[in-house]
Amino acid sequence: MSDAKREGGFALLELIIAMALASLLALWGGSFWMQQAEDAAAQSTGTWLLTLKKAVDQMLVRQADLLVGIVQAEPGGSGYRDIWHPTIAELIAAGHLSTGFPSRPALGYEARVRVFPPQGACLTRGCKIEALVWAQPGAGQLRQANDTNRLGKLLTALEGQGASVHPFLPQRIKGSVVDRPNPPSAELAPLPIGTIAALSFYDSTQYAHFVRQQDLRDTVLKGKLEVAQEISTPADVVAGASLRAGSRISAGEYLQVGALAVEGNVCEAPGLIARGADGNLLSCHQGRWQLSGASFGGVFLTHSWRSCHGNRHLAEFLPWNLGGVSLVNPKTGECNCPAGFSPMLLAAWGFQDHQSGEYRSFMCLR
Q1: pLDDT tens per residue, range 120-162
Q2: How far apart are CA 144 and CA 190, in angstroms?
Q3: Which of 94, 126, 165, 244 could form a disulfide with 195, with the two C-beta atoms 3.0–4.6 Å apart?
Q4: Packing angle between helix 2-62 and helix 148-157, nearest 10 degrees?
Q5: By the 8 A CB rule, do 155 and 197 touch?
């Protein structure tokens, strides 16, 4: 009887030991799988933030001209309610993220983006544009977020491009390529411990010297500018030399002529326009500056058989004005009217005492 009792006691002890070992194995296994799930969520969150960072990289490239002030936002807007704080939904709408990109990562952190105002001579030499992308834990996640093991997993997933607010250095956002104060800008509250971040960057200097559509800068060219189609501008077009157009030039406002000329003086080429000292508009016609739009084209005389350029016969009849008598029209230098004018006969006359022939005087009118 005593032997049976002894054998039952050993069986009970073995059962208790087996159950304890099984419990320890179950506890260890559950803890292991929980850690595996935590590591997977951290890895997924780091990859998620890296994808968001690359999307912001693309956004900085596309919006660089607007961010540095080279152009203004289009009438329909840039697509961002506040271009300095783009949201995930706006990045998806702009095509920088896929349509199904989640708004929160696996760890449930809240994501934010802050584009910093560019510094330097952005309009002339270009400058760097930076944006901080971060994911911060919520109020109920702060204890887990302080776990340095989790931070290590998150930063590993960011492939060396990440930074964090570490429990040992909460006043900095620090990583291998990022070192910024916490908070990153004056209008933001300090980021909580456990926050992970990445820095987006774009250098606009390589394209600063190119002229863009809707460019707000004053553009200076030291060589020729040839345009196959129209040039349209609401502002000034300033040229240090000639400005030529193969077609017409039109202005929606006033056209100001600055060159001065003297009526009657020799001009270089037909079609030139200038203004006189009195403000009247002059045009180059038949080699001389003439009042533009004037209805008077000069006067001239003709003779029935004498040459236009001889005046000795007139001097015989008009001895009181020997030096100033001429048959020619002072506006053309010939006995005719300028182009666009028609001669109107004023008088026909001759001298009875001389065989002088007939003289006729004409006035040129439009």
Answers
A1: 787 777 888 899 999 988 887 777 778 788 888 888 888 888 8
A2: 18
A3: 165
A4: 50
A5: no
